[in-house]
Amino acid sequence: MEPTIFDLILQKEIPADIVYEDAHVLGFKDVNPQAPIHVLFIPKVRIATHNDLDADNIDYLSRMHLAAKEYAAEVGVADEGYRVVMNCNGHGGQTVYHIHLHFLAGRQMLWPPG
Ligand code: 5GP
After folding, report:
1. Model confidence pTM above 0.85
2. Relative to the CA of 114, which of 32, 41, 85, 87 has its CA 20 to 30 Å away?
3. Å from CA of 92 to ligand 1 middle
4. Domains of the chain
């Protein structure tokens, strides 16, 4: 698999505004934020799309959600609410093929999404 821009961020080869890090997950601000708070949580292993989740790597998804939950509390939006979403492939709007959980907060989210 070709490395993605997120591999370079993980390897600290290009800068990112990192807001969360543990042994398994990295969280950093989206370069093109769609809400006052827009953070991407990524696994520290390459999983290209939601379709590539399996019994061996599914723990990363749990850890990404836990990281997002902790971050929501840290930035004080847990009670007012936020959105976590993952895009998959073309119709899902995925552009970077290293799974990432979008964490969006700080404004009223709309439904259905565009
Ligand atoms: P997707 O469309 O794949 O769900 O989301 C990819 C996200 O990555 C987009 O929201 C885009 O703004 C963000 N992104 C793309 N390249 C970079 C980058 O180099 N740095 C950061 N921080 N975010 C990026």
Report:
1. yes
2. 41
3. 14
4. 5-105 (3.30.428.10)
Q: CA–CA separation, 53 vs 56, rounded Å? A: 8
Query: What confidence tens digit (pLDDT) does each residue in 40-64 have?
Result: 999 999 999 999 999 999 999 999 9
* Tens-place pLDDT, residues 83-114: 999 999 999 999 999 999 999 999 999 999 98
- Which residue's structure tokens are 């997120």? 6
Strands (E), 1-114: 18-21, 25-29, 37-43, 82-85, 101-105
Q: How far apart are CA 81 and CA 9, in angstroms?
A: 28
Closest residue to atom 18 of ligand 1, CA basis: 31
